[in-house]
Design brief:
The protein has 85 residues and is an all-alpha fold. It folds into 2 domains: 1-46, no CATH class; 48-85, no CATH class. The protein is built from 3 helices and no strands. The chain has helices at 2-9, 19-28, 61-73. The longest helix has 13 residues, at 61-73. The chain is elongated, with a radius of gyration of 16 Å. The mean pLDDT is 75.
Length: 85
């Protein structure tokens, strides 16, 4: 989330983020809310989750557990797994 916030502050584009995640930036004027009269929910947009891990023969059990959780949660949805090179 920090990367998206940083990119938006640098003017790289528009992001959809929760109010709490950008409250300070909005308060200081670094970011400007748009489309505030349009309700948005996760049902209205595609939600993408990316889990990036270093390329390694060993993956910690806690990392694998989180990955398994998301795959199970969105089973049947669009789910891709990529390995960093």
């Amino acid at each position: 989330m920090q990367k998206l916030r940083s990119m938006a502050i640098c003017g790289a584009g528009i992001v959809m983020m929760p109010d709490w995640a950008v409250a300070d930036e909005i308060r200081t004027g670094k970011l400007v809310p748009i489309l505030t009269d349009t309700p948005v929910s996760s049902d209205d947009a595609d939600i993408y989750v990316a889990i990036l891990t270093p390329q390694s023969a060993y993956r910690p059990m806690n990392v694998q557990a989180v990955m398994d959780f998301f795959v199970e949660k969105w089973e049947g949805g669009r789910c891709w797994a990529f390995q960093a090179t």
